[in-house]
Each structure stands twice: as C-alpha cells, then as structure tokens.
Amino acid sequence: MIPRRLVVIGLIFAVLAAVPLYGADYYTGLATKIMIFGLAALGLDALVGIGGMISFGHAAFFGIGAYVAGLFGKSGIDEGLIVWPTAIAVAALFGAVIGSLSLRTRGAAFIMITLAFAQMLFFIAASLPALGTSDGIGLPHRNSLAGHSLGRAVDFHYVVLLLLAGALALTDFLARTPFGRAVDGIRQNEPRMGALGYNPTIYQLACFIFGAAVTGLAGALVANLSLFAAPDNLHWMTSGTLLVIVILGGVGSLFGSVLGAAVLIVLEEVLAEVTDHWMMILGPVLIAVVLFGGNGLAGFLLRRPHGRTS
After folding, report:
1. What span, in angstroms and rounded, lies between the C-alpha atoms of 15 and 116?
2. Phi/psi at 45 (nearest 5 deg)?
3. pTM summary value
4. For the chain, which domains are there?
5. Is 107 within 8 Å of 88 (Cβ atoms)?
6. Of 250, 261, 212, 219, which Cα lies nearest the Cα of 58?
7. Are 63 and 260 spatial neighbours (Cβ–Cβ below 8 Å)?
8. Among 89, 91, 105, 299, which is 20 to 30 Å from 271 by CA?
9. Where are the alpha helices (DSSP H) in 75-189?
10. pLDDT tens digits for 101-138?
C-alpha cells in the first residue's frame, strides 16, 4: 500500500505540473505564486513544525532573497545559478546572526525579537537609496538558467516546481535524519535532551539557518515573478501571511505549506472579485479550517476514518 501522504503529495505536484497545459498565463502565474509562497512557508515550517520556534519575522529572509535578486538585476547579472545560490547564502548568513541572538530568548520574547529584526530590516530597506527606498528595485527581466531564458511563464513555472520539489525532499530527509530527530526531541523536551548531552542552541540555530535559507530562495523567486523587490517583502504582514499559511496547511506536515498557500491565495483571488470587503469573508473561512481541520488541511486529508492520521 502506498502511504496516503505520498498519494497527496503526488496529486499536489500533478495538479501544479498540469496547470500550464490547460490554463492561460494568468493561471500559470497564479500557480507559480502559490509554489513560491509555499516554498517560503516551508522554510518557516521547518522552524515551527520541527524546531518548535515560532518566528514572526521570517519575512526578513523573504525580503533579503528578493533584494539580492534585485541588486543582481540592477547590476546586469541575471544567471540564476549565480543569483539563487547567493540569495540562499545571504539569507543563511542573516539567519545565523538573527538566530544566534534570538535564541538567547524563549517563548513570547523569541517571537518579538524576530519581529523586531524583520521590522528593522524593513525600515533600513525603505530608507536606503541603494535599495530604492520605498520604491524598491525593479528587475529588467527574469533570471536565466544556464543561459536559458525564463521569460516565458511556463518555463519559470516548471523551474519553480523543480526547486519546490527539491526543497521539500531535502526538508523531509533532514527531518528523518538523527539531526532532525534531535531537533524534534529538543522541541518536545529541551531539558531532557540537554541532559542527554545535546546542545539545544546549536541544533536550533542550525534549523533556524536552514529555514532562513529556504525562504531566501523563495524571496529571489518572487522577485523574478513580479520583476520587483520592495520593502513590503520584509514587512511584518508578510511574516503573518507565512505563519497563516503554515497553520492553515498543517504545522509540521511540510507539504501542508503548499496546501495552505494554495487555499489562501486562491481564496484571496476569488473573494476579491466578489467584494471589496473580502477579508471579512476570508477570516471566518480560515478559522473554520483551523478549528475543524485538526492539524490544518494536511491533518484533514491524512486523517483516517477512526480519527488517526496516516
């Protein structure tokens, strides 16, 4: 029997792969946006679901990735094999600095200090002329990949799909390694893991850096999608959106980040066409999913008839 989890993942990627075959560029772009925000939320879910670290400043790494892509585009460098690894590295570096300072705290203080770092970067980006101040940085065109242009929506879509699949596979693999098991153990009982000889801060910092790197890649991709890097990518509302996606999709489910992004973004698009007050409708829908879906959408899909998940 194929585990239900793999069936759900296979269906998700089959649908995403089929969108450009049956939809116009608008729907392809919408599906690409879903994957990018799912990738960004995946980085946050690595912190929340595996490490038990609730960050309200993860937009910092999303915005950093976007600005790296913007600065490269401004300088005339558009090779994705240069831009994207650099975005990952810079986001990981900032993750190391922010994480090492934030992990000196716990609980609500940790949430607030991550928020403070993200807002600090937001105001810096909005005030620096080199970063376009509040106007941001425009990209002349999308990055290429090994010399191949990604200007067509369908080409960029499939590259993002492969990157998302790779990031999901890597995150799932790390969660099942001794490292991932140790981080999960620290989340469940930090004093006991410390007594067993593990250094909680080292493991949590490594998890924090990994989550920052994944979200940094998503930031570079969203700048390519919109051809724009703006301070809004660093704003606390973006952090809140990512956290909502994680909770909606299912904390710790990993692939739930894609489900959460799909539901949130599609609902926004549909309801915005119906009324200007679409947020008043979206709010109760999200509350209902969280209350009755168990562990989000992933928990609902994986739940067996007798109540357990597969």
Report:
1. 38
2. -65, -30
3. 0.91
4. 4-302 (1.10.3470)
5. no
6. 212
7. no
8. 299
9. 80-102, 108-127, 153-176, 178-188
10. 999 988 889 999 999 999 999 999 999 998 988 888 98
